[in-house]
């Protein structure tokens, strides 16, 4: 395709950095709200809070990797992690050795990211997979509201619905309605 590894690495730093900062701000706001809003705190389990803290830490470390990535703009970090991912997917036992020279922040970021994948089935993160995709392709709905004023329902003699007094009250009301006609 003609794109160098160094260029890919710079694009990854810029795009990943911007997305990471936006996600970090969002996670910080969510964590703040979950910890300090009493109504939300009551409905939160310890697991919910711990998962949100793990996500916040993962985002913090991901943003922190940009410093080390900027030290090697020739693409060597990009090549290292592409080789590791390829070895991991092909079950190559030499995959861990490919990360031996990587900075500790990268290793922590990878371990925490894989931990989040590991705990997903046991947390509310599993709802990621239960998205109602049919909602995206359903036909559109239009809600039509009338501009005419709402009609009030008639009140019975006791202030409730006309049937509040049973059949006798209803008969009496219908007779009164006929007498006035």
Automatic annotation (TrEMBL):
The EC number(s) attached to this protein equal 1.7.99.4
Which terms in the GO cellular component ontology are assigned?
nitrate reductase complex; plasma membrane
Q: Which is one Pfam family of this protein? A: Nitrate_red_gam
Q: Which keywords does this chain's UniProt record carry?
A: Cell membrane, Electron transport, Heme, Iron, Membrane, Metal-binding, Nitrate assimilation, Oxidoreductase, Transmembrane, Transmembrane helix, Transport
Residue ranges annotated as transmembrane are 6-29, 49-70, 104-126
Tell me the ranges covered by the NarG-like domain, including all copies. 1-146
Report residues binding heme b. 109, 127
Keyword Cell membrane assigned to the entry: answer is yes
GO BP terms: anaerobic electron transport chain; nitrate assimilation
Q: What residue spans carry the Polar residues bias annotation?
A: 165-181
Task: Please give, as recorded in its UniProt entry, the membrane topology of this protein.
Answer: Multi-pass membrane protein
Chief site of localization: membrane
Q: What is this protein called?
A: Respiratory nitrate reductase gamma chain
């Amino acid at each position: 395709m003609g794109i160098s590894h160094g260029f890919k690495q710079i694009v990854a730093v810029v795009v990943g950095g911007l997305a990471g900062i936006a996600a970090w701000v969002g996670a910080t706001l969510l964590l703040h709200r979950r910890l300090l809003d009493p109504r939300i705190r009551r409905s939160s389990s310890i697991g919910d809070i711990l998962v949100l803290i793990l996500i916040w830490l993962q985002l913090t470390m991901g943003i922190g990797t940009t410093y080390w990535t900027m030290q090697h703009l020739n693409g060597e970090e990009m090549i290292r992690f592409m080789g590791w991912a390829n070895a991991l997917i092909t079950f190559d036992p030499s995959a861990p050795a490919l990360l031996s020279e990587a900075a500790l922040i990268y290793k922590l970021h990878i371990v925490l990211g894989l931990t989040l994948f590991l705990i997903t089935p046991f947390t509310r993160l599993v709802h990621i997979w239960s998205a109602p995709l049919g909602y995206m392709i359903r036909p559109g709905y239009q809600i039509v509201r009338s501009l005419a004023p709402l009609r009030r329902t008639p009140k019975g003699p006791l202030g409730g619905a006309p049937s509040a007094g049973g059949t006798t009250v209803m008969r009496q009301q219908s007779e009164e309605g006929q007498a006035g006609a």
